[in-house]
Design goal:
Elements lengths: L2 H22 L4 H24 L5 H27 L5 H27 L1
């Protein structure tokens, strides 16, 4: 996967997360709190991937990509919680979970390959 692809994919994922958060935030406490947590972690993935592109060193690049992966795992947690609590349209949650699992796998591969070089 090219750098541009992961940047574009994580950006598009952030857009999808923002739309999902808007849809689930109905003003009730649980939904509002989950929405905020999910918004924060889900949009942070792409921001860290973008930052990694300007890393000052290989170690800096790996660090930023590792943070992106950590945020992706947190996002998966919040989505799984939404799924278990029947928050959001199940099909939407499933699509977001599928994509986050793929992003975690891609980020893991990028980190491993970079460490190996």
């Amino acid at each position: 996967m090219e750098k541009k692809d992961i940047c574009e994919r994580t950006f598009n994922y952030a857009v999808a997360i923002v739309k999902f958060c808007r849809a689930i935030d109905n003003g009730r406490n649980v939904e509002r709190l989950l929405s905020r947590q999910l918004f924060r972690s889900g949009t942070s993935i792409g921001a860290n991937v973008e930052e990694a592109q300007a890393g000052q060193s290989k170690a800096d690049f790996i660090s930023k990509m590792s943070i992106a992966r950590k945020e992706a795992r947190e996002t998966r947690y919040w989505l799984s919680l939404c799924n278990s609590l029947n928050i959001g349209i199940p099909r939407d949650v499933d699509v977001l979970l599928k994509e986050i699992n793929e992003l975690i796998a891609i980020l893991t591969t990028i980190i491993k390959k970079t460490k190996g070089n």
